[in-house]
Write a structure and sequence with these properties.
Layout (H helix, E strand, L loop, with lengths): L12 H21 L8 H8 L3 H4 L6 H25 L8 H13 L2 H8 L1 H5 L5 H25 L5 H9 L1 H12 L3 H6 L12 H16 L4
Helix pairs in contact: 1-2, 1-4, 4-5, 4-6, 4-8, 5-12, 6-10, 8-9, 9-12, 10-12
Protein name: TetR family transcriptional regulator
Keywords: DNA-binding
InterPro entries: Homeodomain-like_sf, HTH_TetR, TetR_C_34
């Protein structure tokens, strides 16, 4: 990319999309360099992307909007991986247990998805426009419905509407379990005490258990 002093405004739709993708890639790299970070500064994003702050705002209305687009990317990539992973089980994969294991393992393999989801209601949804929020919620709903359809394809005996209800609860589960499974340093030391070990959380294991419990509870009676 050009330095800010030699910046040339993108004219075509392709150039604008290239700039937007560059900003998202830069933001992703910034977050990977600081796994504990939950916020993104526009000034630093502009500096690392070699753009001016005003030009960053041509593509994103706020730092929250940048993170929201990253989360959309993460959910889309996860959904593609989910479908592939579910199919690997063959006939043995036609069970709630397989679905729960695959869901938990594919989600936990994407820590950025988990990090951003965990701050979705408290931070990401604060400073974006109504139109951007509608677009984001539509993308989120489409992923949720797609996952429910994929689950239903594995276990046809469970109505797709029931799987949609299961998926409705997965975002709150991630929001709660991710920070509990990744506590601050002192809190992590405290729950290592034998008498407090019951307060420890294992994100993948606990997510799989919660999802399995939900599916069993919503399964139609024999």
């Amino acid at each position: 990319m050009n330095s800010p002093s030699s910046y040339v405004r993108a004219r075509s739709a392709e150039q604008k999309e290239e700039r937007r993708r560059h900003l998202l890639a830069t933001a992703r790299e910034m977050l990977s360099q600081n796994p504990a970070a939950l916020e993104l500064g526009i000034n630093e994003l502009a500096r690392q992307a070699e753009m001016t702050k005003s030009n960053v705002y041509r593509y994103f209305e706020s730092s929250e909007a940048v993170l929201m687009d990253l989360l959309v990317e993460e959910f889309a990539a996860w959904h593609a991986e989910l479908s592939t992973a579910l199919a690997r089980g063959g006939k043995a994969g036609a069970s709630f247990e397989h679905i729960a294991r695959v869901f938990a393992s594919t989600v936990s393999a994407r820590p950025l998805l988990c990090r951003l989801t965990s701050i979705l209601p408290s931070f990401l949804e604060r400073k974006v426009s109504f139109e951007r929020m509608v677009e984001f919620k539509g993308n989120l709903l489409a992923v949720r419905q797609g996952a429910a359809q994929a689950f239903h394809a594995r276990v046809p005996g469970m109505p797709v509407q029931a799987f949609e209800q299961v998926m409705k609860h997965t975002v709150p589960l991630i929001i709660g379990l991710w920070p509990l499974s990744n506590p601050a340093e002192m809190a992590a030391q405290v729950v290592e005490l034998p008498e407090l070990a019951g307060l420890q959380y294992d994100f993948e294991q606990d997510l799989a258990h919660a999802l399995l419990t939900l599916m069993r509870g919503m399964a139609p009676a024999d």
